[in-house]
Design brief:
Blueprint: H1 3-6, H2 11-19, E1 25-30, H3 37-40, E2 45-50, H4 54-63, H5 83-90
Antiparallel strand pairs: 1-2
Length: 99
């Protein structure tokens, strides 16, 4: 699922990524033009997350591709560390929380 983002990485970076597979990992890679501006924002890189969460893995496999998400925090604030904290911060602004 990540191969389109990894194709243009220097070869010396492929081995460390492969060694850390299957995760959970987050890799920050240069955007090669494949990421929508809403995903990348003002950055020139994207974070690729390999999850070990069973439901998220099943969703990616069923969908046949990567899922896009954001971190669980408001811009500039530290990330929430629990589902309860996410619910407190975001309230009715989110449809569902997967923990």
């Amino acid at each position: 699922q990540f191969q389109p983002w990894l194709n243009q990485l220097p070869l010396e970076l492929h081995a460390p990524l492969a060694a850390s597979w299957p995760g959970p990992n987050t890799w920050l890679v240069p955007d090669n033009g494949r990421s929508h501006g809403l995903v990348r924002g003002a950055h020139q890189s994207v974070a690729l997350r390999v999850t070990d969460h069973p439901l998220m893995k099943a969703l990616c496999e069923a969908f046949g591709g990567p899922l896009v998400s954001t971190s669980a925090n408001r811009a500039g604030d530290p990330p929430a560390m629990s589902a309860e904290e996410v619910a407190t911060i975001f309230g009715d602004d989110v449809a569902a929380i997967v923990a």
